[in-house]
Amino acid sequence: MENSFEIISYVGAKPLLFGMTRGQVEAIVGPPITKTTDDLGETEASYKSFNIQYSKQDKSLVEVGFSKSAGVKIHGLDLFNDPKAFLHLLREDSCPYESFGFIILLDLGITLTGFHDGDPNQLAITAFARGRWDHLKSDFKKFKIP
């Protein structure tokens, strides 16, 4: 079960939905391999092919980040295995941004890395809850679609 997810923008990465508690998440995917608290006081739970971020405020699921060993789809696109997926997603978003080495697609509620710079070792995708990147918007630069 751990290796197959469908990203639904601002809803979650099914079967994991934003707003779920840690108990609800673990009932679906089991206990994490590791659990840490970051500098912001948020909890990160690590699994073999993905990481989960829980908010500091209400301890609910706010991000799911995937490595290339996870099976991840959005709008039917296999993000890690379809060579056309990256360009398709860029064109689907009204204004792609780049910041801190990430491509940020606010219309889709995802970030991507490793796709735009041709580094297969850095390939990663994160689905995030609405508002997660808002405080960093002033650092965003428009990303030019190749």
Verbal overview:
The chain is mainly beta and 146 residues long. It is globular, with a radius of gyration of 15 Å. Strand 11 and strand 12 form a beta hairpin. The chain is built from two helices and 14 strands; from the N terminus they run βββαββββββαβββββ. The chain has helices at 22-29, 85-92; strands at residues 4-8, 12-14, 16-17, 34-37, 43-46, 50-54, 61-67, 71-74, 77-78, 97-99, 102-105, 110-113, 124-128, 141-142. Helix content is 11%, strand content 37%.
Which features would summarize this protein structure in a list?
146 residues, mainly beta, 9-stranded antiparallel sheet, 5-stranded mixed sheet, 2 helices
Beta-strand residue fraction: 35-45%
* Global outline: globular
| DSSP strand tally | 14
Strand order of the largest sheet: 4-5-6-7-13-12-11-10-14
Q: Would you tell me the structural class of the helices and strands? A: mainly beta
Alpha plus pi helix count: 2
Low-confidence stretches: none
Rg over alpha carbons: 15 Å
Nearest-integer average pLDDT: 93
The N- and C-terminal alpha carbons lie at a distance of 35 Å
Largest sheet: 9 strands, antiparallel
What string, H for helix and E for strand, traces the elements in order?
Answer: EEEHEEEEEEHEEEEE
Give the proportion of residues in helices: 10-25%
